[in-house]
Amino acid sequence: MQNIEKIIIKSFSGEITQEEKTLLRNWLNAGDENEQYYAQLKNIWQVSGVKFTPDEIDAEKAANLVLEKINNKASLYRNRSLSLLVWWQRVAAIIVLPLLFALVYLLGSKGLDHDTEMVYQEVMSPPGTCSKVKLADGTTVWLNAQSVLKYPVVFQEDKREVFLAGEAYFEVRSDKRHPFIVKTKVMDIKATGTAFNVEAFDSENITAVTLIEGKVKVNIKGQKGLDMTPNQRISYDNKIDSYHIETVNPYKWYAWKDGVLMFRDDPLEYVFKRIGLTYNIHIEVKDKKLAEHPYRATFEGESIDEILRLIKMTAPIEYVTEERIMTQNDSYSKRKIEVYRVKK
Asked: Looking at the chain, which terminus has fewer C-beta neighbours within 10 angstroms, N or C?
């Protein structure tokens, strides 16, 4: 950690000396960027609620305390509407989590050097929530619901490697000397500076990458790399050990990060699976033929009940919502919906 950062932290903890106050004031007066950086660190300090000295930094404690604040706040809304709880979870993910990640990076990297063992941070996006992560190299990652991203607090000298289980959209900061590698269970994606979406849920047979801009090389189970160009999508079916390359409208595959669900002649089974992921509900299509029925629509901002009503207007379905029950921890079970083919 640089000296100025130590002085900033000492100013927060009230341990700053008069000489250091002068140095800090001169540094702040040197430019607007310094003032913005100071304000960001102050926000992180206030959100985390962790009190420490520059020589006793506990990044894990900071992470735990912030996550505890999110959970405590969410519990206050459990007895209110589900939509209000989901709303708070999303706000927490958008506002609080990025501050937490910055805190872990700035404070957790203290004392690390290239000879020490790699230290990893693992981030999980809660059900029904999307999270935004800023990595140490400047790369930005949008993490979809029920997804986990594991990344080093400090990247290695020769590469930037992260691990994904779930779905994420990457905007990789350009650095040709240090390739950026996303590792999934069956697929590795290598880039230097580009934007792409990766779907790699462990529970699904399909692992896919969609390229928006730049170039990437995809390795499937260690095989020879496949070069991709913008608007291409590679999907690998683990069940039959086969991959498929096609040209697509890429926005369809990463619109989720903007709160948009876009379907273009997709099977209803896939449509309901994506809706369930977004709204943290379980939807089961009970008719096999209905599950394959193609559906086309775009949803943005509608409630789950409104979405179901709209689908019922344009597709041959009817549905039943199971009654939610109270669990042992005084919360309610996940909402479950069964979808049937409409009776003629």
From this structure: C
